[in-house]
Design brief:
This protein has 108 residues and is an alpha+beta fold. The chain contains two helices and three strands. The chain has a single domain, classed as Ybab, Chain: A (2-Layer Sandwich), CATH 3.30.1310. The chain has a three-stranded antiparallel sheet with strand order 1-2-3.
């Protein structure tokens, strides 16, 4: 039985190649995009790129207390965790756009 199977497969391959090209561009773009999140009312701010890499961390002088290191550790952890979460959401949104509806289970 001959039919549209070949055309369907060709379209699938073309869409997969296009999605791969788009994903490569998005991954590069995400490396340059930065999200930020703060904790302690802005006392600690973490800056994370779209590939979930911590690129900068700022700490206000007034929260540095040598007698309460645990508080500073908690503030840093909270800011980094929140920034990474924002970065993941951004990545998933951008990857979804790049895939153009082409779904690959487990990709992201």
């Amino acid at each position: 039985m001959k039919g549209g199977g070949g055309a369907g497969m060709g379209d699938l391959v073309r869409r997969a190649q296009e999605a791969q090209k788009n994903l490569s561009k998005v991954q590069q773009d995400l490396r340059d995009r930065i999200v930020e999140a703060s904790s302690g009312g802005g006392a600690v701010t973490a800056f994370v790129n779209g590939q979930q890499e911590l690129v900068k961390l700022t700490i206000k002088r007034e929260v540095v207390d040598p007698d309460d290191v645990a508080m500073l550790e908690d503030l840093v952890s909270a800011a980094v965790r929140q920034a990474i979460g924002e970065s993941r959401r951004m990545m998933q949104e951008e990857m979804g756009k790049a895939m153009g509806g082409f779904k690959v289970p487990g990709l992201f």
